[in-house]
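Field reference: sequence -> structure
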Amino acid sequence: MSLAIVRSRAAEGIEAPEVLVEVQLSPGLPSFNIVGLPEAEVKEARDRVRAAIHNSQFDFPLSRVTVNLAPADLPKEGGRFDLPIAIGILAASEQLPLRALEQHEFYAELSLGGNLRGVRGILPAVWRGLKAGRIPIVAQDNAAEAALVDCDARARSADQLLQVCSYLRGAVQLPKLPEPPQGVRPPGELDLRDVCGQHQARRALEVAAAGGHHMLFVGPPGSGKTMLASRLPGILPELDDQEALEVAAIASVSVFGVDASRWRERPYRSPHHTASGVALVGGGSVPRPGEISLAHRGVLFLDELTEWPRQVLDVLREPLESGRVVISRAARQAEFPSRFQLVAAMNPCPCGYADDPSGRCSCSPDVIARYRGRVSGPLLDRIDVQIYVGRVPIRELRAGSEGEPSEVVRARVLAARARQLARAGKVNAQLNGSEVSSHCALAEAEQRLLERVVEHHGLSARAYHRLLKVARTVADLSGRAAIAQADLAEAISLRQLDRARGGARQGFAQDPRGGQAIPERR
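Structure field:
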């Protein structure tokens, strides 16, 4: 009787719990059994492993083979246990030295010919394996992804089972993983200089980027809402090492995988409005991350906001506050981070031209009220910047763009974020209640102005604190240590939809002199 223990790791959310692959050979009729709560893909490893061992010129033992995947109460899925099972069988049958297994971890699928294939979720497994002080062995298909966390160049990659066995015998050395790319931002891609006019909307975008605030664009068709939103990642700072690894770990366990060539870029997700709530927050029998987690540390853009089902939009309310989502199923639970920046766009009415100076809107007040009511008040309350994007005058389109390029705006955003990190260790949008009181204190005159605005528009306590956070961001962009009245006034002017809730026709009117939105006078 022979026993071999090989280490591997399961995929459970973005965690990678250790799994001991215990292989025992015992007398009796030849059989091959896998126990330890394996899913169907793991059970099918019996045929793949047997064929791979034969085709790699090894002997499959003619005895009773029992494979236990411990711990027994942890569900196992996927083909990642093929390689450790094959290594365990060869070690238990004395075709490989047992001592070579102690310092290694193995995760790869096997083909019938003995080739190694990549598996999903390799980055969290390699990350945990390296932290445990072991040497991960991965398929060549996963080498670029695994290299993102292999700072000490300890992990190894291989193409075939025979190559791994030769390495464990000490006959050959497996190649190190390739150097990870630096992720340099491509120049001239979706630049803000392409946006004609829209000076107030550009300013709102800069404020949102500087403080990490959620924002909503409201305006007629063709006014540039989507164009503005797509330029937001270009003025955000690049991810640091920890943030980049978080984003890559989420992508690794998703159906999309990691693009190693762009792993330091902030994600930008733009799902269609027909997406379900499960697609948005994640789910499935085996929990997978949804769009809000795939947008972690990046931007989630929801176009045509009023066309989304209201019950789907309302699932965003908790993640917007907590920055995480917990997916619970009968057999398992997974938690995914979802600290994203929400940017949304919508038309002001069904025809799209309410509040337009041309007066071409024919929608009745009741129709407009029902249309805007598709977005719930609690969700709007969580959006810091709500701005009207009017039609661009034809003279500005003819003259072309004369706005600042993204790099110039990004420099101001980086400077403002540096002030926030030095002061509180986080961006202003993430300040909690006590931190708002400490870092967003107002002088007496500014406090009275804010109180009048809150009382006049009936704003909630959440909206009150969010106005303070936006004002703090405006002051940071100006380099001021204290919030001035001009900063507070600009923050109030950037929350325009609160003034549009009094009636269907109340709301935005475009200032013909400067193309900016002003509250409609009654």
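Note: Residues 406-424 form the longest helix (19 residues).
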